[in-house]
Protein backbone atom coordinates (compact mmCIF):
# COMPACT_ATOMS: atom_id res chain seq x y z
CA UNK A 1 0.00 0.00 0.00
CA UNK A 2 2.65 2.51 0.99
CA UNK A 3 4.78 1.52 -1.99
CA UNK A 4 2.04 2.63 -4.34
CA UNK A 5 1.44 5.73 -2.27
CA UNK A 6 5.16 6.47 -2.54
CA UNK A 7 5.03 6.02 -6.31
CA UNK A 8 2.11 8.41 -6.72
CA UNK A 9 3.53 10.96 -4.29
CA UNK A 10 6.84 10.97 -6.14
CA UNK A 11 5.21 11.35 -9.56
CA UNK A 12 3.07 14.23 -8.32
CA UNK A 13 6.05 15.97 -6.70
CA UNK A 14 8.16 15.49 -9.83
CA UNK A 15 5.75 17.75 -11.70
CA UNK A 16 6.72 20.69 -9.47
CA UNK A 17 9.58 22.48 -11.24
CA UNK A 18 11.21 23.86 -8.10
CA UNK A 19 11.31 20.43 -6.42
CA UNK A 20 14.92 19.22 -6.47
CA UNK A 21 14.48 15.79 -4.88
CA UNK A 22 10.97 14.32 -5.33
CA UNK A 23 11.83 10.80 -4.03
CA UNK A 24 13.09 12.11 -0.68
CA UNK A 25 10.27 14.63 -0.36
CA UNK A 26 7.72 11.87 -1.06
CA UNK A 27 9.36 9.74 1.65
CA UNK A 28 9.10 12.66 4.07
CA UNK A 29 5.47 13.46 3.19
CA UNK A 30 4.39 9.83 3.57
CA UNK A 31 6.00 9.82 6.98
CA UNK A 32 4.00 12.95 7.88
CA UNK A 33 0.75 11.32 6.71
CA UNK A 34 1.51 8.24 8.77
CA UNK A 35 2.14 10.45 11.81
CA UNK A 36 -1.21 12.17 11.16
CA UNK A 37 -2.95 8.78 11.18
CA UNK A 38 -1.28 7.57 14.37
CA UNK A 39 -1.82 10.86 16.20
CA UNK A 40 -5.48 10.87 15.13
CA UNK A 41 -5.85 7.42 16.63
CA UNK A 42 -4.17 8.60 19.85
CA UNK A 43 -6.45 11.66 20.00
CA UNK A 44 -9.59 9.53 19.63
CA UNK A 45 -8.42 7.00 22.23
CA UNK A 46 -7.39 9.81 24.59
CA UNK A 47 -10.78 11.47 24.17
CA UNK A 48 -12.62 8.37 25.34
CA UNK A 49 -10.17 7.22 28.03
CA UNK A 50 -9.48 10.71 29.46
CA UNK A 51 -5.77 9.98 29.91
CA UNK A 52 -3.82 13.23 30.14
CA UNK A 53 -0.11 13.09 29.52
CA UNK A 54 2.28 15.66 30.96
CA UNK A 55 2.98 18.54 28.62
CA UNK A 56 6.61 17.62 27.83
CA UNK A 57 5.95 13.93 27.28
CA UNK A 58 3.94 14.61 24.12
CA UNK A 59 7.02 16.22 22.56
CA UNK A 60 9.16 13.17 23.29
CA UNK A 61 6.46 10.79 22.11
CA UNK A 62 6.10 12.72 18.85
CA UNK A 63 9.84 12.80 18.20
CA UNK A 64 10.13 9.09 18.99
CA UNK A 65 7.26 8.31 16.63
CA UNK A 66 8.87 10.32 13.83
CA UNK A 67 12.21 8.61 14.37
CA UNK A 68 10.66 5.13 14.37
CA UNK A 69 8.71 5.84 11.17
CA UNK A 70 11.81 7.29 9.50
CA UNK A 71 13.82 4.18 10.35
CA UNK A 72 11.06 1.86 9.09
CA UNK A 73 10.24 3.77 5.90
CA UNK A 74 13.79 4.43 4.74
CA UNK A 75 14.67 0.86 3.73
CA UNK A 76 11.14 -0.05 2.66
CA UNK A 77 10.45 3.01 0.49
CA UNK A 78 13.37 5.33 -0.20
CA UNK A 79 16.10 2.73 -0.73
CA UNK A 80 13.80 0.59 -2.89
CA UNK A 81 12.54 3.48 -5.04
CA UNK A 82 13.88 2.03 -8.32
CA UNK A 83 12.16 -1.30 -7.70
CA UNK A 84 8.94 0.47 -6.74
CA UNK A 85 8.97 2.56 -9.92
CA UNK A 86 9.62 -0.47 -12.11
CA UNK A 87 6.72 -2.26 -10.44
CA UNK A 88 4.14 0.52 -10.80
CA UNK A 89 5.09 2.18 -14.09
CA UNK A 90 3.84 -0.83 -16.07
CA UNK A 91 0.32 -0.81 -14.65
CA UNK A 92 -2.62 -0.76 -17.02
CA UNK A 93 -4.46 2.53 -17.45
CA UNK A 94 -7.58 1.47 -15.53
CA UNK A 95 -5.47 0.37 -12.55
CA UNK A 96 -3.48 3.64 -12.65
CA UNK A 97 -6.66 5.71 -12.48
CA UNK A 98 -7.92 3.64 -9.56
CA UNK A 99 -4.58 3.97 -7.76
CA UNK A 100 -4.52 7.73 -8.29
CA UNK A 101 -8.04 8.10 -6.88
CA UNK A 102 -7.07 6.05 -3.81
CA UNK A 103 -3.92 8.16 -3.43
CA UNK A 104 -5.85 11.44 -3.35
CA UNK A 105 -8.49 9.99 -1.04
CA UNK A 106 -5.82 8.85 1.41
CA UNK A 107 -4.00 12.19 1.35
CA UNK A 108 -7.14 14.32 1.71
CA UNK A 109 -8.93 12.17 4.28
CA UNK A 110 -5.82 11.68 6.44
CA UNK A 111 -5.30 15.43 6.61
CA UNK A 112 -8.96 16.35 7.12
CA UNK A 113 -9.62 13.73 9.80
CA UNK A 114 -6.43 14.74 11.64
CA UNK A 115 -7.43 18.41 11.64
CA UNK A 116 -11.04 17.75 12.65
CA UNK A 117 -10.06 15.36 15.46
CA UNK A 118 -7.40 17.75 16.71
CA UNK A 119 -9.73 20.73 16.66
CA UNK A 120 -12.71 19.03 18.28
CA UNK A 121 -11.38 16.29 20.55
CA UNK A 122 -8.25 17.75 22.13
CA UNK A 123 -8.70 19.57 25.43
CA UNK A 124 -6.25 22.48 25.79
CA UNK A 125 -3.83 22.20 28.71
CA UNK A 126 -5.18 25.30 30.41
CA UNK A 127 -8.65 23.68 30.63
CA UNK A 128 -7.44 20.36 32.02
CA UNK A 129 -7.85 19.69 35.72
Q: Mind describing the biggest β-sheet?
A: none
The domain count comes to 1
Order of helices and strands: HHHHH
Terminal-residue CA separation: 42 Å
Task: Tell me roughly what share of residues is in helical segments.
Answer: over 70%
Q: Provide the gyration radius in Å.
A: 17 Å
Helical element count? 5
Briefly note the structural class of the backbone.
Answer: mainly alpha
Assign an overall shape: elongated
Mean pLDDT: 86
Low-confidence stretches: none
DSSP strand tally: 0
Strand content: under 5%
Topology:
Layout: H1 2-14, H2 22-49, H3 55-78, H4 81-89, H5 93-121
Helix pairs in contact: 1-2, 1-4, 2-3, 2-5
What would you note in describing this structure?
The protein is mainly alpha-helical. It has one domain. It has helices at residues 2-14, 22-49, 55-78, 81-89, 93-121. Helix 1 packs across helix 2 (22-49), helix 1 (2-14) crosses helix 4 and helix 2 crosses helix 5. The chain is elongated and about 55 Å long.
